[in-house]
Every structure is written in structure tokens, then in C-alpha cells.
Amino acid sequence: MEQKRILIVDDEQDLCEILCYNLTAAGYQAEVAYSAEMAMEKGVAQYDLLLLDVMMSGMSGFELARQLKGDEATASVPIIFLTAKDTEEDMLHGFGLGADDYVKKPFSVREVMARVKAVLCRRESAEADKPKTLQYEGLVIDLSHKSVKVDGEAVALTKTEFELLVLLLSHRGKVFSRQQILDSVWPQDVIVTDRTVDVNVTRMRKKIGRYANLIVSRQGFGYVFEL
User: Fold this and answer.
1) What is the pLDDT of residue 190?
2) Calpha distance 199→208 (Å, rounded)
3) Using CA of residue 165, residue 170, residue 173, residue 176, what is the dihedral sign?
4) CA-CA distances (angstroms) from residue 79 to 7, 20, 72, 96?
5) Measured between alpha carbons, how far apart are the two ends of the chain, in Å?
6) How far is CA 41 from CA 69, 83, 159, 168, 178, in A?
7) Model pTM?
8) Long-range Cβ contacts of 196-205 (<8 Å, 24+ apart)
9) Residue 119 half-sphere exposure, CB side, CA atoms within 13 Å?
10) Number of helical H runs and strand E runs in the chain
11) H or E element: which one contains 31?
């Protein structure tokens, strides 16, 4: 099973180290960002879950959550708030922003681990209920088998090309900036440039035949699957 990636966003270094240690011991891939701004730089779309503090210097956790839930590239990333803001109003505000859970500080590590497992299980169940294919006319993507057919003929895409096509086809009409594409498709530990996006889009276009002209470059903005 693929290792789940969890990003801890909190400015308390000791707490981050404890959570990181326990999550890693439980089989997760845990990383840390000591501010909301650092989390944004890492590219939130690549993670399976965020453990998010509210009261941090700079951008608050509430504001980060608002921005993430307003962006299609990151809206589906689950968020568990870990915070000392413990009033009912604070909790309702957190859930109103789209949080999946809300844990009040101080907390036990065992409680957090249980909440993490529950949220990830719910998300996996929801993913299982999603359509297993994406399709536009004769362009068919099999999400389960990671394969693509164009008018009935199998097309060999690289992993990156496949994920690019899935991103654009699943959000038809939405323009993605090159940075949004980088955040969604490439791992954070791989150093790439905007030009890398252009090269991979060009290669992918050549492989999808008559549907290539539907992937449109918007100068100064990015790419869109345009109908």
C-alpha cells in the first residue's frame, strides 16, 4: 500500500517532532512546516492530510484552510485542526472552513493518531465511491489501471503525463497556472521549473491524437482542457 503523506503545520518545534516521530512509527510519511507560508511553498496538493495549527505567526491556520479549500487543486486535501482555540465558536468556524476534524490542545498523541486514521479511512471510502474512469468522447482514462485509450487504442503515457492529463480533464474549463500544476503533479523533493511543465504537456499532446488541440495554453496564465 502506498505510504500516506502527512504535513504537520505548527510553529511549536517540540510538538512537531513528537507528532512526526509517532506518525513515522505508524507507517506514515510525515513532514513539517513551521508556518502556513512554508506549507504553501511545499505544495499542499501532494499531501494526503494536513495537521494544522490555528495560531501561528504570519498567516493563521484558518486563513490557510480558507485558501486551500478555495483552490480546486487543494480543496480535497483533508485538514485536522490541532489548536488551543477551544471555544465552540472556534470549532464551528473550523468546520465551516471545511475541516475534517478539530482537536483541542493539549491533546494525547494517541488521540491524534486515532483521528488521523479515521479521517484517512473516510477519505479512502469516499475515493472508492468515485467514478473509476474519466472520459471525453473517445479519450478514456482508466483511473484504477492508470491507462489511457484514444478512440479505442491504448496510449503509453509516463506517470507525469498521465497525472497531467487527469488533472486537466477532471477540471475541464479551469485554467491551471504552471505553479499549480507543479504543486499537483510533481513531488516536492524534485526540483523542476515552469519549462518542465511545458515540455511534458507537449509530449502528452503528441500522444493523444485529435484531442491534443483541446489542451490549450493561455499565455501568461497556464493550461486548460477547453471544450
Assistant:
1) 67
2) 15
3) negative
4) 10, 16, 15, 12
5) 36
6) 16, 22, 23, 22, 14
7) 0.63
8) 197/223, 200/158, 200/160, 200/161, 200/164, 201/164, 203/158, 203/161, 204/157, 204/161, 204/164, 204/165
9) 24
10) 8, 12
11) strand 29-33
Q: Round to whole Å and give the CA distance between 39 and 49.
A: 12
**Cell 516536492 belongs to residue:** 188
Mean pLDDT per block of 10 residues along the chain (227 residues) reads: 89 95 96 95 91 94 94 89 91 93 93 95 79 89 90 94 94 91 79 86 95 92 91
3 state SS of 29: strand
C-alpha cell at 136: 471525453
Distances (CA, A) of 188 to 45, 205, 218, 224: 10, 25, 25, 23
Phi then psi for 38, rounded to 5 degrees?
-65, -35
Query: Which cell numbers hold the place of 15?
Result: 510538538
What's the confidence (pLDDT) of residue 6? 97
The length of the chain, given as a count of residues: 227
